[in-house]
Amino acid sequence: MYLAKVYVTLKPTVNDPQGRTVMGGLKSLGFVSVADVRVGKYLEVRLQDADRPQAEARVREMCEKLLANPVIEQYRYEVVEV
């Protein structure tokens, strides 16, 4: 069995209103050194594939089809055996 750890974030050129809201909250709590905040998603997917290359290919396909919007988001992942 494999565990895929998937990180999805907005592309750098995409505006992040949620990140700006979090940054404003942090600054109002006294964290004045915060320069920027970007909000993203973290997902864990367990796979019962035969080998790591097959699991990685399946995760890549999941990201392209559902987990990330390739127009505005970028993703990265790591697959580990569990």
Quickly describe the structure.
This protein has two helices and three strands, in the order βαβαβ. With 82 residues, the chain is an alpha+beta fold.
Describe the fold and architecture.
- By secondary structure, the protein is α+β, with helices and mostly antiparallel strands.
- The chain has one domain: 2-Layer Sandwich (Mth169, Chain: A).
- It contains two helices and three strands; from the N terminus they run βαβαβ.
- Strands 2-1-3 form a three-stranded antiparallel beta sheet, with helices on one face.
- The longest helix has 16 residues.
- It is elongated.
- The model has no long low-confidence stretch (mean pLDDT 97).
List the helices and strands and how they pair.
Elements: E1 2-10, H1 17-28, E2 40-47, H2 52-67, E3 73-81
Antiparallel strand pairs: 1-2, 1-3
Main pleated sheet: 3 strands, antiparallel
The CATH superfamily is known as Phosphoribosylformylglycinamidine synthase subunit PurS
What is the CATH level 1 assignment? Alpha Beta
- How many H/I helical runs? 2
The CATH architecture name reads 2-Layer Sandwich
Task: Estimate the helix proportion, in percent.
Answer: 25-40%
Please name the CATH topology: Mth169, Chain: A
Shape, please?
elongated
Termini separation (Å)?
A: 6 Å
Count structural domains.
1
Helical/strand content category? alpha+beta
SSE series: EHEHE
Going across the biggest sheet, name each strand in turn. Answer: 2-1-3
Strand-residue proportion: 25-35%
The total beta strand count reads 3
User: Averaged pLDDT, please?
Assistant: 97
Radius of gyration: 16 Å
Which regions contain 5 or more consecutive residues with pLDDT less than 50?
none
